[in-house]
UniProtKB/TrEMBL annotation:
It is a multi-pass membrane protein. The keyword S-adenosyl-L-methionine does not apply. Residues 288-405 form the P-type ATPase A domain. ATPase which acts as a lysosomal polyamine exporter with high affinity for spermine. Also stimulates cellular uptake of polyamines and protects against polyamine toxicity. Plays a role in intracellular cation homeostasis and the maintenance of neuronal integrity. Contributes to cellular zinc homeostasis. Confers cellular protection against Mn(2+) and Zn(2+) toxicity and mitochondrial stress. Required for proper lysosomal and mitochondrial maintenance. Regulates the autophagy-lysosome pathway through the control of SYT11 expression at both transcriptional and post-translational levels. The gene is Atp13a2. Interacts with MYCBP2; the interaction inhibits the ubiquitination of TSC2 by MYCBP2. Interacts with HDAC6; the interaction results in recruitment of HDAC6 to lysosomes to promote CTTN deacetylation. It is found in: Cytoplasmic vesicle, Autophagosome membrane; Endosome, Multivesicular body membrane; Late endosome membrane; Lysosome membrane. One of its GO terms (cellular component) is transport vesicle. InterPro entries: ATPase_P-typ_cyto_dom_N, ATPase_P-typ_P_site, ATPase_P-typ_TM_dom_sf, ATPase_P-typ_transduc_dom_A_sf, ATPase_P-type_domA, HAD-like_sf, HAD_sf, P-type_TPase_V. One of its GO terms (molecular function) is metal ion binding. Residues 34-170 form the P5B-type ATPase N-terminal domain. This is Polyamine-transporting ATPase 13A2.
Length: 1170
């Protein structure tokens, strides 16, 4: 379901039993989802009919209804309105072109105390805390959401259901179910601050009834439950059916072996499933004693499972694991969020500002403590305690959402999997035809009816390969193992194949394309409205506002004796020589008062400074926000008449907050000169504040008040070098036809220079910057296209030390986050054209990165995303292949986690993906050919009233086929990426042609061997009046078995092609050895049968010339199989292109590329688009 299901509360008439919505999903989950709800309730007559049908058909319908629960629901229950539903059918769809997934859930009820679910308006007005008891919402329509049932009801009952861990409650007034996390939608930061006094026990009990316990419950089934689930699955149901047939057909040894293998497989699956469930449960289980506030100033220790939204936590100074999501309302915390984001740098969390804006955990993440993160240190400033108000519990928390994504991963819509199911269905049809033929020939041979039925059904077990899912799984397991050996960990193995289909890869810039650390190049001070020359050593600046801003405008914190925080802040403070301390301001302007931190100057050097600088106390922080692109501090020092505020952030935004007379006239030109050279530039500004110089007064300030009429102070210039691996990787990806896109929060000009330097934009290629203007003063939104001179950008890239190499390519577009937002809102028809040509997306907020990935997926791109997980978690999860660069072994932020600190992991994942996908095609083809080969053998032998023997089936299925099917997947990926891509469609002309021609060759060789045998003078026909296996051994069976056994090996080698996606066959030594050894054994069986002749039920052939003739047939089959594959690879595509020109791709982005090739856009010069 959705994290934003407000549309569920539309005006749905009570008589309707089905509700369909289109709803946005949380950025950490995916893009768009469709959800349909259908209600059903009990019907006595339907229930009686249901049980009669189940009993009359010996429980078979019950088994069928386990696989298709919707059928059972529709037979047992009757449709009804959602208001009276006892059972719900939930249908979800991830994307428009994906299939619907069906789930059934039971509606549960819970009695609630009288009046506890109904809050009067005056009570809400008097007590801000009570407003959030079941939900404070902004619109009038929502003001009765507390009234879950009408006032006339004597006894109130809460109706709800649980789906994928989330709780949905029935809203009587809206006639819809609502996710409980939305009940607090619309709360303001002021509302949260009103909850500092805590909840009463009555309020806490009511909320626990509604929200449920604060636990992330991972169901761990017992072994008997798991056994029932596993044994009654369709796969093992088919196996049980097959074993029963084999026993009836007297294939005791084969049936026993398959039974033992299935039993061992079930036991291993049970152990693995239970172990994984227990590991995940132990990993997420968190039960600690926490201290909560109660009205009247009381405090109480409770178990963390009792927490509900609105509780106020008292955090210990030594920190600990957070059991819920909570907004910090007093004090500061240093938090390690690596378990959620993969970012190992501790983060400073500050108190939530007390303003009327709506609270959002993502927007206010610098003030939010997320569940599962580790609080390293908590410090109280105003008041004795560090306080945090609980905002979300259980599966509604950030950690709960990530756990839910593990338990219920987003379904993968992949053409290969869809086609594989269609192909299995086609094999089932073939089995039906074979069954009809076998009945005809068996009837002609006067076989008894019961024997005829068993033989005919036995043919189904031959054609449909039951081992196909296991064989396909082995491919991804090998790829996963190889990735792990290279330091790349994958928690969703099915995503590996998607890596082979990538069309486009988005890269974060800082820490991904460029080095993590920043080198301070210097500071650009100003005098009046004129920039002075660059000062390489900030510590040599004279005492003044600029030096104070550099020393104090940061979010560093002291952890033990070590300052921790953002690497840029650490470098900036280090360049000044000032030292961070935390505690009371012992020698500040307000002696013995509490402050956030104290910055102490370096030892005084009288040659550089006339007077020793004073230590500076930090009174207030407004931490950096990706959306606002700036941070603010309020400081004071001894002798200061009043505190001062300093702002640090994006130069364009900071300059916009400054008084125009303080901004240098050549600001844009100077900024351009540095950003064009690839430097990262941060602006600093400040102003005095007319308040008392103490912590209490500073904490009352609002950000809007501070960020007005600032005075521009100067620029901090930093150098962020490209990683040495970046340019070669970008070049390799572009050479193979994979688009590369930069998505960064940095300045546009800096991003352009980095893109030039790493080769995303070639030196002779056109780069156009798109600038959008919001509608204002009655004027509509407009677009402006600004061409960038390539020579200037190249010179800037060379000045920054980047090596530039030309890579021919069409136009590139560059834009910032503001323009991207305008395009989405006001120019949706132009957005696809921009996305197809867009290479640089700068100043992108975290949520915009997610939106960009989703928009690209709408154009049918298979999108990869590579970032460090710090502020691109949503994009990493939304992408088809998300790769997080992190030292953590595995991160739930993205399917892939690379311990390599460079983008070299991207080609590795793509190579493994292509190898795995190509191997999957080969294994599927082999398993299909193996089934068809055995099908042909059995049909030939059925025609003469015989069959393969018990041990012969064992030798084929277990010794030959299983061995080669498992080992053929071990072939590693090609060492070099090529432009060719593995096919995504199984039902394509090359694949189907290969299958049909190989089957024709198999049929011709087996029939040729049979007719050659019959034509021999020493041939003695079998006794057709005796059924198999009693008429074994015989010449017909011996020849067919011997030839088909070779064919299994030949086909395995023929479909195991190497280039262009895999290494050559000879590099897979175990597979090669298995082929050679099994081939030698089979040659020995023909020439000198020896001890194996008896157990296998083979008849000795004394004619040596005939034996050599059989080996000649084998050689013919071997050469023919490889010639067919070679011809299909080289000749058939050329013939198809000659007979039928290549059809245009139906993918949306391909169509756009063709349109732009015929009619380029934008054309320059161009007037602004309105």
């Amino acid at each position: 379901m959705s994290a934003d299901s407000s549309l569920l509360m539309g005006n749905t008439p009570p008589s309707y039993g089905t509700l369909t919505i289109e709803t946005s999903i949380d950025p950490l989950s995916s893009s768009v989802s469709s959800v349909r709800l259908s209600g059903y309730c009990g019907s006595p007559w339907r229930a009686i009919g249901y049980h009669v049908v189940v009993w009359m058909l010996a429980g078979i319908p019950w088994l069928l209804f386990r696989w298709k629960p919707l059928w059972g629901v529709r037979l047992r229950l009757r449709p009804c309105s959602l208001a009276h539903a006892e059972t719900l059918v939930i249908e979800t769809r991830d994307k428009e072109d994906s299939s619907w997934q069906l789930f059934t859930v039971q509606v549960q009820t819970e009695a609630v105390g009288e009046g506890s679910l109904e809050l009067l308006q005056q009570a809400q007005a008097e007590d801000g805390r009570s407003q959030a008891a079941v939900g404070a919402v902004p619109e009038d329509t929502w003001k009765d959401t507390a009234q879950l049932h009408g006032q006339e009801e004597a006894k109130q009952v809460l109706r709800y259901y649980l789906f994928q861990g989330q709780r949905y409650i029935w809203m009587e007034t809206q006639q819809a179910f609502c996710q409980v996390s939305l009940l607090d939608h619309g709360r303001t930061c002021e509302d949260i601050h009103c909850s500092r006094s805590g909840l009463s026990l009555k309020d806490q009990a009511v909320r626990k009834t509604i929200y449920g316990p604060n636990v992330i419950s991972i169901p761990v089934k017992s072994y008997p439950q798991l056994l029932v689930d596993e044994a009654l699955s369709p796969y093992y149901g088919f196996q049980a059916f097959s074993i029963a047939l084999w026993l009836a057909d007297h294939y005791y040894w084969y049936a026993l072996c398959i039974f033992l293998i299935s039993a061992i497989s079930i036991c291993l699956a049970l152990y693995k499933t239970r172990k994984q469930s227990m590991t995940l449960r132990d990993m997420v289980k968190l039960s600690v004693q926490v201290r909560v506030c109660r009205p009247g100033g009381e405090e109480e220790w409770v178990d963390s499972s009792e927490l509900v939204p609105g509780d106020c936590l008292v955090l210990p100074q030594e920190g600990g694991l957070m059991p819920c999501d909570a907004a910090l309302v007093a004090g500061e915390c240093v938090v390690n969020e690596s378990s959620l984001t993969g970012e190992s740098v501790p983060v400073l969390k500050t108190a939530l500002p007390e303003d009327p804006r709506a609270y959002c955990s993502e927007t206010h993440r610098r003030h939010t403590l997320f569940c599962g993160t580790l609080v390293l240190q908590a410090r109280a400033y105003l008041g004795p305690h560090v306080l945090a108000v609980v905002t979300r519990t259980g599966f509604c928390t950030a950690k709960g959402g990530l756990v839910s994504s593990i338990l219920h991963p987003r379904p993968i819509s992949f053409k290969f999997y869809k086609h594989s199911m269609k192909f299995v269905a086609a094999l089932s049809v073939l089995a039906l035809l074979g069954t009809i033929y076998s009945i005809f020939v068996l009837y002609h041979n006067r076989v008894p009816v019961n024997e005829m039925v068993i033989r005919a059904l036995d043919l189904v077990t031959v054609v449909v390969p039951p081992a196909l899912p296991a064989a396909m799984t082995v491919c991804t397991l090998y790829a996963q193992s190889r990735l792990r050996a290279q330091g790349i960990f994958c928690i969703h193995p099915l995503r590996i194949n998607l890596g082979g289909k990538l069309h486009l890869v988005c890269f974060d810039k800082t820490g991904t394309l460029t080095e993590d650390g920043l080198d301070i190049m210097g500071v650009v001070p100003l005098k009046g409205q004129v920039f002075l020359p660059l000062v390489p050593e900030p510590r040599h600046l004279p005492p003044g506002p600029l030096l104070r801003a550099l020393a104090t405008c940061h979010a560093l914190s002291q952890l033990g004796d070590t300052p921790v925080g953002d690497p840029m802040d650490l470098k900036m403070v280090e360049s000044t020589g000032w030292v961070l301390e935390e505690g009371s301001a012992a020698d500040s302007a307000a002696p013995a008062t509490q402050v956030l931190a104290v910055m102490r100057p370096p030892p005084w050097d009288s040659r550089l400074q006339e007077e020793p600088p004073e230590p500076i106390s930090i009174l207030c922080r407004f931490p950096f926000s990706s959306a606002l692109q700036r941070m603010v501090v309020v400081v004071v020092w001894p002798g200061a008449a009043q505190p001062e505020a300093y702002v640090k952030g994006s130069p364009e935004l900071v300059a916009g907050l400054c008084s125009p007379e303080t901004v240098p006239t050549d600001f844009a030109q100077v900024l351009q000169s540095y950003t064009a050279a690839g430097y990262r530039v941060v602006a600093l500004a400040g102003k005095p504040l007319p308040i008392m110089p103490n912590l209490e007064a500073a904490q009352q300030l609002t950000r809007d008040t501070v960020e007005q009429e600032l005075s521009f102070l100067g620029l901090l210039v930093m150098r962020n070098l490209l990683k040495p691996q970046t340019a070669p990787v970008i070049r390799d990806l572009q050479r193979t036809g994979i688009r590369t896109v930069m998505v960064t929060g940095d300045n546009l000009q800096t991003a352009v220079t980095v893109a030039r330097g790493c080769g995303m934009v070639g030196p002779q290629e056109h780069l156009i910057i798109i600038h959008a203007s919001h509608p204002e003063r009655g004027q509509p939104a407009s677009l402006e296209f600004l061409p960038v001179e390539s020579s200037a950008a190249v010179n800037g890239a060379k000045a920054a030390g980047y090596i530039v190499e030309p890579v021919p390519r069409p136009n590139h577009l560059a834009l910032n986050g503001s323009t991207f937002g305008v395009l989405r809102k006001h120019f949706p028809k132009l957005l696809p054209k921009v996305l197809v040509q867009g290479t640089i997306f700068a100043r992108m907020a975290p949520e915009q990165k997610t939106e960009l990935v989703c928009e690209l997926q709408k154009l049918q791109y298979c999108v990869g995303m590579c970032g460090d997980g710090a502020n691109d978690c949503g994009a990493l999860k939304a992408a088809d292949v998300g790769i997080s660069l992190s030292q953590a072994e595995a991160s739930v932020v993205s399917p892939f986690t690379s311990s390599m600190a460079s983008i070299e992991c991207v080609p590795t994942v793509i190579r493994e993906g292509r190898c795995s996908l190509d191997t999957s095609f080969s294994v599927f083809k082999y398993m299909a050919l193996y089934s068809l080969t055995q099908f042909i053998s059995v049909l030939i032998l059925y025609t003469i009233n015989t069959n393969l023997g018990d041990v012969q089936f064992l030798a084929i299925d277990l010794v030959i086929t299983t061995t080669v099917a498992v080992l053929m997947s071990r072939t590693g990926p090609a060492l070099v990426l090529r432009r060719a891509r593995p096919p995504g469609a199984l039902l394509s002309v090359p694949v189907l042609s290969s299958l049909l021609l190989q089957v024709a060759l198999v049929v011709s060789v087996q029939l040729g061997g049979y007719f050659l045998t019959v034509a021999q003078p020493w041939f003695v026909p079998l006794n057709r009046t005796v059924p198999a296996p009693d008429n074994l051994p015989n010449y017909e069976n011996t020849v067919v078995f011997s030839l088909s056994s070779f064919q299994y090996l030949i086909l395995a080698a023929a479909v195991s092609k190497g280039a262009p996606f895999r290494r050559p066959l000879y590099t897979n030594v175990p597979f090669l050895l298995a082929l050679v050894l099994l081939g030698c054994v089979l040659v020995g069986l023909i020439l000198v049968p020896g001890l194996l002749q008896g157990p296998l039920g083979l008849r000795n052939i004394a004619d040596t010339c005939f034996k050599l003739l059989l080996l000649g047939l084998v050689a013919f089959n071997f050469v023919g199989a490889f010639m067919l594959e070679s011809m299909l690879d080289q000749c058939i595509p050329a013939c198809l292109r000659w007979l039928q020109p290549k059809r245009a791709s139906k993918k949306r982005f391909k169509q756009l590329e063709r349109e732009l090739a015929e009619q380029p856009w934008p054309t320059l010069p161009v007037d602004p688009v309105r």
